[in-house]
Amino acid sequence: MFDFKYYTPTKVVFGRNTESRVADLIREFGGTKILIHYGGGSVVRSGLLKRVTDILDSAGISYVTLGGAVPNPHLGLVYEGIELCKKEKVDFLLAVGGGSSIDSAKAIGYGVANEGDVWDFYDYKRKAEGCLPLGVILTIAATGSEMSDSSVITKEEGLIKRGYSSDHGRPKFAIMNPELTMTLPDYQTACGCADIMMHTMERYFTNGGNMEITDALAEGLLRTVKKNALILREDPKNYDARAEVMWAGSLSHNGLTGCGNDGGDWMTHKMEHELGGLYDVAHGAGLAAIWGSWARYVCKDCLPRFRRFALNVMDVGERGSDEETALAGIEAMEEFYRKIGMPTNLRELGVKPTEEELALMAKKCADGVGGEMGSAKVLNEEAMLAIYRASM
Ligand code: NZQ
Ligand code: ZN
User: What are the chain's domains?
Assistant: First the structure.
């Protein structure tokens, strides 16, 4: 067990109709002039945005709105949001939507609270010293950004997708009403489930520091999401299944399932970020498309964890050898992906990179992690290229 810090300051308000408490929560955290930030229009079509602005109007809280955060949110809109906040003297951000709106709002918050170019933080040049306070009304269970310290932004020039993590960016509150996720297309629900599971799997497949309590939480979370993702496939309006998945999404990425470990592996995420930057694929689908190839590449170097995953999460039972058990677990995970409509390779994801593009992604990925990274197995550029090739 390694030493750890566990810091989750976000006030979670969970359940039906909880969005009706948004004005009280904004006041509680000192907001007087709000920027409501949202995505491509789902919150307009569902009527959620109108409900929120009606509540703020009734409460006498003034606001401006900025929509347009796209999946793999763009730096250009972040700059626009920063200017708008400065002009309108905004003192509180409200993201209404999914990870893309939340991450874009966090970036706007860093840009307002710090001098200079906000991209510097995502380019690992310096650290933020603050962030405008932020609240969230979540509409998709996926990234865990509603409680996480991370924000992932794509710079249009060079299609560079990078994450920045800082406690300053953790939301002050997160309103989570599982009913709001019922308008999601099945594909996005499945992408969310894949992402949620991967946030715990990145922390689970390590070579150090694992704790019994953390493993029990991690395995319980993975089993819960697996079970409820399949229920939602058949019954998308199932409130309890939506609720299980939504809460799992937050717990999976707020640090809980990594306490005591060595920091986790994170290479599936890093490699997906290159795909997301270059081909604009949905994040959860990109993760699913790469994971099997990554798992087979690193499995022998992290065998006890893969064996444990096969037995305790995928429930495949002991096979002839530990390696056979581990491989059966990987196959069972891929079978699960197929059942929920997720790809298990790049072809199924719908992208066909050339050899040059594969090499470019491997190079950008290696550069982004300072040469090499990973806990299940340390990967360099050559290893990343081999995994991209295997996922074709
Ligand atoms: O943009 P709108 O119109 O709202 O539509 C969205 C979008 O098309 C739609 N949607 C969301 N809620 C809906 C809905 N449609 C109908 N009904 C609803 N209730 O779903 C699509 C995906 O939304 P998005 O916000 O992009 O999804 P997600 O939450 O998966 O966020 C993905 C982004 O977060 C990053 C990803 O890389 C990607 O850029 N990540 C952020 C992390 C973090 N901040 O901690 C960690 C993750 O690992 C991840 O990298
Ligand atoms: Zn993710």
Answer: 11-180 (3.40.50.1970), 185-390 (1.20.1090.10)
Residue bearing the CA closest to ligand 1, atom 36: 283
pLDDT on residue 209: 84
Pocket test for ligand 1, best of 100, 152, 270, 274 (most atoms within 8 A of CB): 100
Distance 189 CA to ligand 1 centre (A): 10
Count the alpha carbons within 13 Å of 154 in the hemisphere toward its beta carbon: 22
CA 136 to ligand 1 centroid distance, Å: 13
Q: At 283, which amino acid appears?
A: H
Beta-carbon contacts of 273 under 8 Å, excluding residues fewer than 6 positions away, are 152, 161, 162, 163, 365, 368
In 3D, which of 266, 283, 258, 267 has the Cα closest to residue 192? 283
CA-wise closest residue to 170 among 225, 106, 104: 106
- Of 335, 234, 328, 221, the C-alpha closest to 288 is 335
| HSE-up (13 A, CA, CB side) for residue 361 | 27
pLDDT of residue 108: 98
* Ligand 2 center from residue 245 Cα (angstroms): 14
pLDDT score, position 334: 98
Write the DSSP assignment of 189-234 as a string of letters. Answer: HHHHHHHHHHHHHHHHS-SS---HHHHHHHHHHHHHHHHHHHHHHH
Q: Which helix (H) or strand (E) holds 349?
A: helix 346-349
Q: Which parts of the chain register pLDDT below 70?
A: none
Q: What is the pLDDT of residue 92?
A: 98
